[in-house]
């Protein structure tokens, strides 16, 4: 009987940890990124649009992580994903946005500002015309915008894909596209546990300095 109780107790502890992880921001972020990666490949022609996901670069005294980079002859699209549900309130210039689920409200950093750093990192790395790099914020999950959003903020992947394909002026040739991808791949940090820990420390430092 004692052995059975220990076994049951052990299973319960494991379940608690699993449930805690499933509810964590880390899991939500990773699952959101996986959803976007899958559907972007479905909506965009892989012969014209190449997607690079979960890219971590050195940035200043820390790191910066970009969810998705879409490279094409029509430009480079830097996508920040937010796996959130409920009502979303925000504007282009506000420092913080709000998520509201019934009586629960949560403030979070304006994702456009967050993605601005990512775009600047890409500009510095690639040395291309600033007009060739486009910032996109994409919300996945059951969320609804309750304020008017800028044209580059989306609540569904199909609208995001339409925005990307609306850019029809060719700015890169095949050789330049390959050079861009090569620079990204050579500059990104290897996805190791230590790199992840370093990035988490960077994120915490930024939050504490606000």
UniProtKB/TrEMBL annotation:
Keywords: Membrane, Transmembrane, Transmembrane helix. The chain crosses the membrane at residues 6-23. It holds the Pfam family NERD. It comes from the Bacteria. Residues 28-145 form the NERD domain. This is Nuclease-related domain protein. It comes from candidate division TA06 bacterium ADurb.Bin131.
